[in-house]
Amino acid sequence: MALTAIDIYKLLPKTNCKECGQSTCLAFAMQIAAGKASIDLCPTASEEAKEKLSAAAAPPLPKVTIGTGESEVVLGDETVLFRHEKTFYHPTAIAVSIRDDAPDEEFASRLAAIRRLSFERVGQRISVDLVALRCASGDAGRYARAAAAALDATGLPLVLLAPAGPLAAAVESVALSRPLLAPPPEDLVRTAKLAAERKLPLRVRARGIEELSAALADSRAAGAAALVADPSPETAREAVSFATNLRRLAILGRVRDLAYPSAFDLGGGFPDPFLAAALLVAKYGSLLVLDSADPADLLPLLTLRQNLFTDPQRPIQVEPGVYPIGGPSESSPVIITTNFSLTYFTVRGDAEAAKVPAHLLIADVDGMSVLTAWAAGKFTGESISKMLAECGIGEKVSHRTLILPGMVARLSGRIEELSGWRVLVGPQESSALPSYLRRLPPAAFLPVHG
Ligand code: SF4
């Protein structure tokens, strides 16, 4: 449990010497409780106080890093059970597997396919994060060469799914890329020693929470520090149950022995792997390994992940302003919508599909969708009229006709009254925009005079 300011105050020297920059020890305790100061600033704090406060300040779910540099993947390091309590920091990492016994040409083309699993959506890039290399050949040399080739071809961090022998051989060639070592349960302790020696992360796999707890203890005893826990479920339902229990024990129970990011291998015949993956993206899977490299399987999963891991306090938004669509002229339609990224890209895509050049006005509503912004009082007759007057659209077009989203048709009268622009009510849904724009008569955008 987090310590209160009073708990912290009881651990301080209580001399009010001010060396920490605060006027009293109690004021300093309040700063620490609020996460704004560290006990290191108090030169006379006891070792006991330092130890207790450091332990209390440690994140309930430790951070484990796989890979290095730009492609580094961070697992764990979460502080809450539900996104609305604060935010989630690290999206579920997704690895696509490849077998080391595939013929050379097939191996290379699958790596190329994995590399292509990267898509642009609402202005962000969503991609597969890692390559999971399955040792199917049993040949240590071949596995090591395959690991080097996978790293070279994709630049993505590796999950090395292999027995201890091939795994040790692969570590020799790719250790600097900080792969995740993922041995079978029978090779755990041997690999844990290797992980400790090379300071590499280790996936610990055992069936169920109790066996996992024992395996994690064995790994710690062997010196491995960066651990990822795989409870080895057999069904999607069991996977979600294990993942939820592990996360609750870590965040609510502060059970340190089980507080590790989780990993799930959903390949190798796991039933309904994409059902399980979708559930685990929502419920506490830190790392998922999948066998399919089909974009039709991966894109929905990456989209779901993007939606769930967007910080609700900081919606993805685009710059407000006037955006040209297809080389518009002074007689082109003027469409308005809000600066929520998903709204912008949807409306923009639909307007482009119409092949009718237009001016797209993006209103600054702190990244909210049209209806949310209207309900929050940020997309109003007043704010839209102000934008029409100030954004410069009046100089770009010779007419004074605005297309308003159909969902806020009720704003038309107020906009017309305040701005002098005529309002045409557009469709309720953006998907109807192409046919709507194509049907508009040119007379709707005649120049105004005087
Ligand atoms: Fe109290 Fe330590 Fe701050 Fe001095 S430096 S006021 S003892 S907390």
Low-confidence segments, given as residue ranges, are none
Sheet with the most strands: spatial strand order: 8-7-6-3-12-11
Q: What compounds sit in this structure? A: iron/sulfur cluster
Shape annotation: flat
CATH level 1 name of the largest domain: Alpha Beta
Based on CA atoms alone, the radius of gyration comes out at 28 Å
State the fourth-level CATH superfamily of the largest domain: Dihydropteroate synthase-like
The major pleated sheet works out as: 6 strands, parallel
Beta strand %: 15-25%
- Termini separation comes to 70 Å
CATH architecture descriptor text of the largest domain: Alpha-Beta Barrel
Estimated structural class = alpha/beta
Number of domains: 3
Please explain how this structure is put together.
- This protein is of the alpha/beta class and 450 residues long.
- It has 3 domains: 5-57, Orthogonal Bundle (3-methyladenine DNA Glycosylase II, Chain A, domain 3), CATH 1.10.15.40; 63-308, TIM Barrel; 321-445, Rossmann fold (3-Layer(aba) Sandwich), CATH 3.40.50.
- It is 40% helix and 16% strand.
- It is built from 17 helices and 17 strands.
- The protein has helices at residues 5-11, 25-33, 47-57, 104-115, 140-154, 164-174, 188-198, 208-221, 236-251, 273-282, 295-308, 341-354, 370-375, 381-390, 393-396, 412-419, 433-439; strands at residues 63-66, 73-76, 93-99, 118-121, 124-127, 130-134, 158-161, 180-182, 202-205, 227-230, 263-265, 287-290, 321-325, 334-338, 358-363, 401-404, 422-425.
- A 6-stranded parallel β-sheet has the order 8-7-6-3-12-11, covered by helices on one side. Strands 13-15-14-16-17 form a 5-stranded mixed β-sheet, with helices on both faces. A two-stranded antiparallel ribbon has the order 1-2.
- Strand 14, helix 12 and strand 15 (358-363) form a beta-alpha-beta unit.
- Helix 1 packs across helix 2 (25-33) and helix 10 packs parallel to helix 11.
- The longest helix is centred in the middle third of the chain and has 16 residues, at 236-251.
- The chain is flat and about 85 Å long.
- The model has no long low-confidence stretch (mean pLDDT 93).
- Bound molecules: iron/sulfur cluster.
- Iron/sulfur cluster binds at residues 12-13, 15-20, 22, 25, 28, 42, 44.
- Residues 12-13, 15-20, 22, 25, 28, 42, 44 line the site of iron/sulfur cluster (SF4).
